[in-house]
Amino acid sequence: MNSLDVLRLTDYFIYIAASAVLTIWVSRTLFRNGRPFLVSALKDEGLADSVNTLLVVGFYLINLGAAALLINAGGAPGSVADMIQETVTRVGGVALVLGFMHFFNMFVLYVIRRAGRPKPAVPLNPYQWVPPAAPAPGV
To answer: Alpha-carbon distance 3 to 76, whole Å?
Structure first.
């Protein structure tokens, strides 16, 4: 095994470890802190817990899948500096995927929450004439 193979394997191990740790940390943070928001948006604690768990599963699948695809990005590192640059670039790609997933989920939940709120009543124009109500029968 030559030094370039050692650099590539070191790059892969660092990248896989950093991607897994980052994905797990973000997922646990969102799971724990997102529950109150889900309960508020969905108005049902059981449904909110189920959706929260399903979001975590989807989050893991998409982010770890993206990390697996990004492992092939870039070429073989020729030096330690190249290895660090490639690893940081791929971990940055994983971080961007995590961020986009988070904001997409927040947008969807915002839309759900907004759709569940009652529409505000449109106030009448105080200068608009409103015809009087018809008298009640028998009065």
So the answer is: 11
pLDDT in tens, 84-112: 888 888 888 888 888 888 888 788 878 87
40: closest CA among 105, 101, 112?
Answer: 112
Listed by start position, the domains of the chain span 3-116
- pLDDT tens-digit readout, 65-78: 888 888 877 777 78
d(CA 17, CA 39): 33
Query: Do residues 7 and 80 touch, judged by C-beta distance below 8 A?
Result: yes
Query: How far is residue 89's CA from residue 91's CA, in Å, rounded to a whole number?
Result: 6
**Separation between Cα atoms, residue 62 and residue 88, nearest integer Å:** 20
Joined tokens for residue 40: 């508020």
DSSP codes of every residue in the chain: --HHHHHHHHHHHHHHHHHHHHHHHHHHHHHHHHHHHHHHHHS-HHHHHHHHHHHHHHHHHHHHHHHHHHTTSS---SSHHHHHHHHHHHHHHHHHHHHHHHHHHHHHHHHHHHHHSPPPPPPPPTTS--PPPPPPTT-
CA 53, CA 67: separation in Å to the nearest integer? 21
